[in-house]
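Today's session is about reading a structure prediction critically. Students often jump straight to the picture, but the first step is always the sequence itself: look for stretches that repeat, for charged clusters, for runs of hydrophobic residues. Only then move on to the predicted structure, which in these notes is written as discrete structure tokens rather than atom positions. Here is the chain we will use throughout the hour.
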Amino acid sequence: MKFNCIDQPFVSNRFSIPVSHGMVCTGNPLASSAGLQILLKGGNAVDAAIATAAALTVVEPTANGLGSDAFAIVWMDQKIYGLNASGVAPQALSIEAVKQKHPEATMMPKFGWTPVMVPGTPKGWAALNARFGKLSLKECLQPAIQYASEGFPVAPETARSWKRSLARYDQDDPQFEA
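Below is the predicted structure for this chain, in token form.
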């Protein structure tokens, strides 16, 4: 198989940004740029992955959220490592509690506070950074922090997705009040 990171023969919304000793590829060029910044600063692939994922939580939060789970398979120093940073359900949540609150439900509700879990992603990023990172966690998160504090242009597909998702939420539901 011939591989050429510049040629994209298939229709794709992924933005590949190669550098001398690596490549970053996401569905959002700002997130790809965040990973690239970290590689150019001397970070490794794990540092760039953390930066990219963190940037996605800001610039494309519907694709990757800070309140999510994180899983990783890392190949480092001729060894493979796995990370399961899935979140946990709140201690007081049980099947009985869900059935009592939502007697009509046949499955876990998709919206509201009931399906919310304690996110595993922040702890997962910290664990990956502590074990494999060359840069500090703060350095890896800096591009995302900059996007969040200074603003960024919203990608057209993200804007369309947000507009479609808005219709899914009941605007009269008190839990969505500001």
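Discussion point for the tutorial: The first helix runs from residue 29 to 40.
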